[in-house]
Write a sequence for this structure.
């Protein structure tokens, strides 16, 4: 089932990227996608971590929210750089997600919003570096943590 | 119609280049490694996002739009990884960040 989904994702990508729709090119695409799925299946790569399809139903909602956050913190980072008032702080937060993919998504989301970077992680504790206390408070309120747990949908 | 799209893409290019210039200034101005990573992250997200948006306004609906969106998606997946690797390597070399530390850090 999952290999079928992977095959169709790869085939869609092939058709969108190539832009040539002759029979030869499409059959070459089908052949190479099938070969990739075969290799991935033999390497046991097709599981919840390699193909996290349980994200998909709520993904669009999350991405829109994340873009809003990125825009807001981009603006405040620009203000901090122009003002020159830097008071960096380092702290730890706990991630409440179950799967590893969701934890990585949470850490990546923290890093993607400018002003906060995850510098280290151990099991479910992240060490976060923030540019000043406003950015730090944004992470410490656990709003993003709750959003990613909701995106994961396992609780 | 053409004119409106041109104006929109011009605004996007302007905001994108502004955030890249501010990010580059921050890269030189900020005090230590960890603070500079924030400025680099600003170039990665704000700069590229607005530039790709401006290019999408220029191309209109075609296969090129899909490719531009894919470029954006890949940058958004890879840029936090590089930021994290830089920060993590600095921590492994026992470089402690400036400023206050709240609670016990790892």
């Amino acid at each position: 089932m999952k290999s079928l989904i992977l095959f169709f994702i790869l085939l869609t990508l092939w058709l969108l990227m190539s832009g040539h729709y002759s029979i030869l090119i499409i059959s070459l695409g089908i052949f190479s996608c099938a070969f990739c799925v075969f290799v991935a299946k033999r390497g046991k790569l097709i599981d919840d971590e390699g193909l996290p399809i349980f994200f998909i139903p709520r993904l669009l909602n999350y991405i829109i929210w994340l873009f809003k956050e990125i825009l807001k913190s981009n603006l405040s980072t620009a203000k901090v750089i122009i003002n020159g008032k830097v008071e960096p702080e380092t702290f730890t937060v706990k991630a409440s997600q179950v799967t590893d993919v969701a934890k990585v998504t949470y850490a990546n989301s923290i890093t993607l919003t400018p002003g906060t970077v995850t510098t280290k992680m151990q099991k479910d504790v992240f060490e976060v570096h923030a540019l000043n206390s406003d950015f730090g408070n944004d992470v410490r309120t656990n709003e993003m943590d709750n959003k990613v747990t909701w995106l994961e949908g396992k609780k | 119609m053409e004119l409106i799209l041109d104006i929109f893409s011009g605004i996007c290019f302007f905001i994108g280049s502004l955030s890249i210039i501010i990010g580059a200034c921050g890269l030189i101005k900020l005090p230590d490694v960890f603070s500079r990573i924030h400025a680099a992250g600003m170039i990665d997200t704000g700069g590229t996002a607005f530039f790709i948006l401006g290019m999408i306004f220029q191309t209109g609906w075609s296969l090129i739009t899909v490719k531009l969106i894919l470029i954006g998606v890949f940058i958004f997946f890879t840029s936090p990884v590089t930021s994290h690797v830089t920060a993590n390597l600095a921590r492994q070399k026992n470089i402690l960040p400036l400023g206050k530390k709240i609670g016990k850090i790892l």
Summary: The beta strands of chain A are 89-94, 116-122, 125-130. Residues 14 and 29 of chain A are 6 Å apart (CA to CA).
